[in-house]
Amino acid sequence: TIDISQLHKELGYFTFDPGFVATASCRSSITYLDGDKGILEYRGYPIEQLAESSTFTEVCYLLLHGELPNKDDLSKFDHTITTHTMLHEAMKRFYSGFRRDAHPMSTMVGVVGALSSFYHHGEDIHDPEHRKITAHRLIAKMPTIAAWSYRYANGQPMVYPKNSLDYSSNFLHMMFSMPTEEYTPDPLYVKALDLLLILHADHEQNASTSTVRLAGSSGANPFAALSAGIASLWGPAHGGANEAVIRMLQDIVDSDNDVAHYVARAKDKSDRFRLMGFGHRVYKNFDPRAVIIRKTCMDLLAKLGPDNEYQALFDTAHELEKIALADDYFVKRNLYPNVDFYSGIILLAMGIPLNMFTVIFAMARTVGWISQWNEMIADDDFRIGRPRQLYTGANTRDYVDIENR
Ligand code: ACO
């Protein structure tokens, strides 16, 4: 590793690295990723073990504090989270300013940014206690914000959080409960959702996390910085891919399963089409999250029975994966299924609508974003992020009056 900032100071060196392919923007002790070997660890714990044995709130504690909680720590943490699940009543009116059928991600960008107006005065980001409360507020409120975005887009009444429920059950309750009938979340779906939240909780310096860090590096309000991260996540090259995968799979199923045609399109450079849910900047091997999610998806569909309506999507995805992995184009470029490839089928099977997929990703990633923000502010080397550029514009020239142009 070369410390360019030192070389810059001593010798005036610059690097040109569009897309930050080979530039570390920070030191971090939160998440370890080895893209060649397909390894992902949170605070040193392999993702496979956390997926098997942990819960989402336990993973939140781990990411924030660096260590697994004991029973007492976890029960206090869970309790603290439940004390912050409500939104200020005025926020309900804020929702009604959005277009009637707004995409829930657009609402989420706005609502999370707007919360900075509630948590602004007298809040000092350099006070660790304040940063802890901010993390608790965000983790606690995000399911409420997410579910209300959905309820608003559907013209349904907002459902308040129920603090006797665990994190994932509470989200499903706010999504699906109706004043007219009692809703009990299916334990199968609660477990699947909790697993998806664990797998999406952090992924080191991806586009949205780097956005949160860069926005926050100016000392900006953390709610505003997270809102910027949510905006970044929304793009189809990042978190928006889970929604795009299902649209692609549905198109393939509707085209009589002409999988080969879609693979050929993805290889054709004159066509902007890409296989959604395929490829990753860092993983040049299997994304370990995709392996876990594919298995969970298979188990869930098996429990729903052979005639379940999502089987066709899964079979098509599986076929696509097989064809692509045997194709030179994908092999040479190390393109494997990523976290988004199978996750959407699980969400669909749970009754989650397509436009909520990236919202759920944002809900999960909130703990990663705020842990990374916290780590950045606490770092002794903390300074504003300010990339440089290679200027390619005009040389110096004199202003010409409009009559003489
Ligand atoms: N389908 C077809 N070809 C692809 C795909 C794909 N999904 N992904 C990359 N390639 C090709 C590119 O065309 C390029 O080919 P070339 O060398 O002949 O020009 C080569 O593979 C390298 O691709 P880049 O775009 O340079 O890779 P980069 O690291 O910049 O992009 C990304 C990674 C954005 C994930 C890309 O693979 C992609 O667009 N995938 C589809 C969208 C997706 O699934 N995003 C989710 C990522 S995971 C997440 O953010 C949660």
From TrEMBL:
One of its GO terms (cellular component) is cytoplasm. InterPro entries: Citrate_synth-like_lrg_a-sub, Citrate_synth-like_sm_a-sub, Citrate_synthase, Citrate_synthase_AS, Citrate_synthase_bac-typ, Citrate_synthase_sf, Citrate_synthase_typ-I. The active site is at 280, 340. NCBIfam families: cit_synth_I, PRK05614.1. Keywords: Acyltransferase, Membrane, Transferase, Transmembrane, Transmembrane helix, Tricarboxylic acid cycle. Gene3D superfamilies: 2.20.28.60, Citrate Synthase, domain 1, Cytochrome P450-Terp, domain 2. Pfam families: Citrate_synt (PF00285). The gene is gltA. The chain crosses the membrane at residues 341-364. It catalyses: oxaloacetate + acetyl-CoA + H2O = citrate + CoA + H(+). PANTHER family: CITRATE SYNTHASE. This is Citrate synthase. PROSITE patterns: CITRATE_SYNTHASE (PS00480). One of its GO terms (biological process) is tricarboxylic acid cycle. It comes from the Bacteria. It comes from Leucothrix arctica. GO terms for molecular function: citrate synthase activity. Belongs to the citrate synthase family.
